[in-house]
Amino acid sequence: MYQLTGVAKRYHKGRRTIAAVQDLDLTIADGEWLAVQGRTGHGKSTLLNLLGGLDRPCDGTVELDGTSLGALPETQLTRVRARKIGFIFQTFNLIPTLSAAENVEAALIPLGTATAARRAKIAAALDAVGLADRAAHLPSELSGGQQQRVAIARALVKEPKVVLADEPTGNLDEDTRDDIIALLEQLWRERALTLVLVTHDSSIARRAQRTGVMTSGHLTIRQDSTNR
Amino acid sequence: MFFVTYARRELRQRMRQAICIALGLALGAGLVITVAAASAGVTKAQARVLGTLYGAATTVTVTGPKWQGPSTSPKGTPEPGFGLHGPEICVVGGKCTSAAGKTLSTIDTLNEGISVSRVAAAARLPGVAAAAGGIFLSESSTSWPKNAASTARKSSIPRSGAATPGGRPPALPGGGRSGGYPLEGVDTGHPTLGPLGGASLISGRLFTAADAGAHVAVVDSRFAATHRLTIGADLPIVGPADAHGYTPAIKFTVIGIVRQAAGINPPSVYVPLKAAQDLLWIQTGPSSLHGKVTSIYLAAASAADVPAVTAEVTRLLPGTTVDSTNDLASQVAGSVKRAVELAHDLGRWLAVLVLIAAFAVASLLTMAAVTHRAAEFGTLKALGWRTRRIIAQVLGESLAVGLAGAAAGIALGYAGAGIIAAVTPSVSATVGLGDLLGGHSRLIGGSPVQTAVVPLHPSVSASLVALAVLLAVAGALLAGAFGSWRIARLRPADTLSRVA
């Protein structure tokens, strides 16, 4: 469970100070799907970085299962990311020189998983996203949708507690977008994931349990969320 | 396995860049090998030249002071002259006789003697492994034809000719000709300590301790060829003058023929030390060499001991000239000197510059690659990779490039050494012996300069190969370290937002 209390994140740009996130109080329950919307530059990605331990808050605390991520030393924070958090990026962020299977394998390296177990997990993850037959393909040999599926397999292969998706369909066409969201929704349900998904797309946001809107660093939870 | 696959794929992806870095490092390492190999070859050549001229590289040579005796010859000394009736031989304090059809042979030294007891004292100095005395003499002869011109004007006749051994003696007034050859008295207990040390035995044998005082000789191959000497042949050497100025020849038996390096003008004849002491034509008075030597050859225990031995022996034997191979090396001229300068100065700095350039290029390219891969590293950090794991990955790639560069560098180094050996198969060394041996060279044949030609063999040693590998790998890792520093400073949130 995430517990964010009085979280603020400021950036300095020259003499200017930009408040990316301000006075943020938020609780995200285990297994919850929270969609975050908002205009560009209003702090959505910053919030995701704070949740993922990629950034530390200037004020307040971001707790995951009772552990304040901002207070953890870098090595422990890295360990939290390796074990508990899966990331999905808008630009897929696959390593171009590695095959689909090797990209998925990259997520298991920090865990020190044994080779045999690693192979089984990779096969299962690719199978789960429907790319079992594309394991040896390089990202450049895959379509955008397939690349994002590989990225999803990479995020899920370590069986994380949390998946943080930053506009995962932002670079995809409409049909592929629906496929990917359907896949994410299916995996969220099957694996009881905590899913925080940043999106501009209201139709996707509506499929989440709760929707929040970031405006000038402030998060407002919309009361008309689907809440399924 | 993942580590290797990842590195291999990355290097293949950046093939051109990796090749560029590896080639830069290879060029630097190759140049270091070539220069060092050439330098080692030149040093060996120089040592060989000096060894040929003066014995082993650890030899310290002590030469007695130059002859400071009376300007007039002692009574009984036969001297060439020119009288009213043409060339004549005059005995100091005695009468003159016509020189027509006669040959005047004398044997001489230009150095004052050093007591043999000092040889023993020098042998006891710390750092001295062995010591031997030597006598450097010059046999000179002047001969006139029976019909020696009587109309030639009176003029001075040099005591010794300028001809080299075996060479045609220059003409003298009255139709006479003079010639001569250098002769070395060798301590038969240490026959290879001294000029004979640099010679190669091509026939017969060298001296043994049993030869002390015996009338046996080892001759230089060129001298042997000129005088048609073989093993067992008789070699007459002029002995001391009697009361009438008559210098009867003493027969020596040739027991060995040796060869010195090409261009060297070594002693033509080597005889046991005791026999050499007996040969000197002045056998009485202060210039007598009985119980004396003109040179002391000291073998230092190691090359490192040479400076200390030089200092000690200088203190022990004041007034003498002490030379070591260290001193002599600085007086060697010719292409070997130019090669030394080239290898030590230009080559070394060129190698250093190329290495610095290679390191700089490798560092810049690695930094550029890391910047290009910032999003990749940010993603890996987001996946839970520790910074040091990513750095290890980058350093591993750099190491692979460095090893490839080292392998290519070794090949380049061998090729460079081969080219040098092909282009410069030999080097010459010119040494001013007059300064070094207290004027002996004037007796050797008139020229104070000797030139030796020795083969140049650039040698690539295992340690040199290891050094090249070390340099190439160090350069690559240095470049990788710059990249690693950049990675360590990367904030994943920044790189990911930049990509987004």
Number of domains of chain B: 2
Number of domains of chain A: 1
Distance between the termini of chain A: 19 Å
CA-CA gap between termini of chain B: 31 Å
- State the name of the first-level CATH class of chain A: Alpha Beta
Number of helices of chain B: 14
Number of alpha- plus pi-helical segments of chain A = 7
Count the strands of chain B? Answer: 19
Ranges of chain B with pLDDT <50 over ≥5 residues? 151-169, 433-448
Labels describing this entry:
heterodimer; A: 228 residues; alpha/beta; Rossmann fold; six-stranded mixed beta sheet; four-stranded antiparallel beta sheet; 7 helices; 33% helix; 28% strand; globular; B: 500 residues; alpha+beta; 2 domains; eleven-stranded mixed beta sheet; three-stranded antiparallel beta sheet; 14 helices; 22% strand
Description:
- The complex is a heterodimer of chains A (228) and B (500).
- Chain A has 228 residues and is of the alpha/beta class.
- In chain A, 33% of the residues lie in helices and 28% in strands.
- Chain A is built from seven helices and ten strands.
- In chain A, helix 6 (174-191) links the parallel strand 7 (162-166) and strand 8 (194-198).
- In chain A, helix 3 packs parallel to helix 5 (144-156) and helix 4 (115-128) crosses helix 5 (144-156).
- The model of chain A has no long low-confidence stretch (mean pLDDT 89).
- By secondary structure, chain B is of the alpha+beta class.
- In chain B, strand 2 and strand 3 (86-91) form a beta hairpin.
- The radius of gyration of chain B is 34 Å and the shape is elongated.
- The chains are: A alpha/beta (228), B alpha+beta (500).
